[in-house]
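Please decode residue identities from the backbone states below.
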């Protein structure tokens, strides 16, 4: 989900004989499983790809607060309100960890925000779908955070040290979020007939957008080879999507819910579920800005950016005065 539209620089995987001496030494470190740190040598393409991926990841965490924050005051009990508030707070923290990781690569948080607002950076397509009922909070936790975990656990082994370390805490908290969503779905399916229908409706609407979170099919992801050679990306899109389906279908069966896919079936030969691919035309429409909530999400981020301008200006003024006083004292 964090590299849905991240394109590598260059023309795909660079052959070793075409690398410079420095790039070969760098690749040897990657192949040996070493972590790359901010002051280490790295190819420009590696740096740019990391900035794009970590930036998109950070934006996804921040924008992902919006569909859930809308339900904090409408959650059915005080406990549910507190739990959802804690989850939204966690997502804000995740965004901050990731912005900090990206800043070690020489890009500022302000620059990344500006790139989000002017369309040069994206965020996960899933957050452009509306959350219409309380059951959607269960589906988001169960499916969306479940798909996020599928992406994030391998990223704890990614080659860039600050990114890998940030993912350790994020993964622990996302696991709680997934369980929280599943608990909501459990309550819904064991409630009234209307509540179970709401749960099924939420699954129906979020199933295919959740499958889209892993990005387009491998055959359409022509730049993955270099990202995987650099260990920026640990698994292909299709590998992660298949793993998500294999793990989620039994959970749906346990809940007594039906995956909205008439062709879904277990394949004894492959040891995996066969399933229907998402509508990739819809995916590219949403990524291009034409989803149900794209305009609302970016307008909300633009408003937050504009409303916070005075805070940023005050912090800069305070830092300048503090530096001036220190210089005068010396």
């Amino acid at each position: 989900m964090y590299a849905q539209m991240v394109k590598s620089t260059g023309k795909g995987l660079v052959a070793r004989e075409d690398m410079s001496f420095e790039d070969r030494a760098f690749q040897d470190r990657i192949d040996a499983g070493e972590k790359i740190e901010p002051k280490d040598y790295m190819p420009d393409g590696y740096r740019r790809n990391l900035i794009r991926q970590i930036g998109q990841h950070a934006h996804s965490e921040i924008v992902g607060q919006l569909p859930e924050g809308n339900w904090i005051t409408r959650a059915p009990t005080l406990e549910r309100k507190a739990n959802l508030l804690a989850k939204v707070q966690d997502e804000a923290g995740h965004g901050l960890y990731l912005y900090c990781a990206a800043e070690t690569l020489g890009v500022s948080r302000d620059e990344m925000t500006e790139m989000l607002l002017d369309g040069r950076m994206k965020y996960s397509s899933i957050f452009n779908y509306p959350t219409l009922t309380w059951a959607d909070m269960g589906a988001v936790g169960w499916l969306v955070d479940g798909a996020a975990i599928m992406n994030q656990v391998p990223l704890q082994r990614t080659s860039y040290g600050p990114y890998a370390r940030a993912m350790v805490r994020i993964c622990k908290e996302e696991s709680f979020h997934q369980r929280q969503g599943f608990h909501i779905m459990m309550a819904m399916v064991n409630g009234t007939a209307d509540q179970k229908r709401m749960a099924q409706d939420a699954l129906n609407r979020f199933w295919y957008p959740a499958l889209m979170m892993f990005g387009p099919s491998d055959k359409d992801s022509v730049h993955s080879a270099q990202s995987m050679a650099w260990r920026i990306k640990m698994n292909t899109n299709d590998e992660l999507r298949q793993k998500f389906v294999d793990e989620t279908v039994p959970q749906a069966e346990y809940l007594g819910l039906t995956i909205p896919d008439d062709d879904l079936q277990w394949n004894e030969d492959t040891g995996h579920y066969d399933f229907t691919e998402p509508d990739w035309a819809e995916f590219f429409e949403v990524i291009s800005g034409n989803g149900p909530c794209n305009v609302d999400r970016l307008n909300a981020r633009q408003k937050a950016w504009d409303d916070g301008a005075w805070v940023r200006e005050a912090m800069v003024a305070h830092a300048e005065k503090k530096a001036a006083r220190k210089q005068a004292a010396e």
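Observation: The first helix runs from residue 21 to 31.
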